[in-house]
């Protein structure tokens, strides 16, 4: 392990750097809200050796989106489902665009080599 590796984690969106209290503070909500979206399986925080929840920046962006929807009057469970569907749609559109590029490209058949 080099001295640079720990600092590299600061740029990693998936590194579980934030405690529940800090995560809730950052997105302007309560720990109970984070537990609720965890129970709805929208996000699954990692656990520290002591069993405490730890959140990544990516998870905080998802939680912030859920908070937006809840603040607009959407029930927590429905907000979580909306976000999951948005994510599935985004992934399907990305895959579709890749297929279209591959089909339109001059070397479309050469990708498997």
UniProtKB/TrEMBL annotation:
Give the HTH merR-type domain ranges: 17-85
Cross-referenced InterPro entries: DNA-bd_dom_put_sf, MerR-type_HTH_dom
Q: Which PROSITE patterns match?
A: HTH_MERR_2 (PS50937)
Task: Please report a single Pfam family linked to this protein.
Answer: MerR_1
Q: Note the superkingdom of the native organism.
A: Bacteria
Q: Know the name of this protein?
A: MerR family transcriptional regulator
Q: Which species is this UniProt entry from?
A: Streptomyces aureus
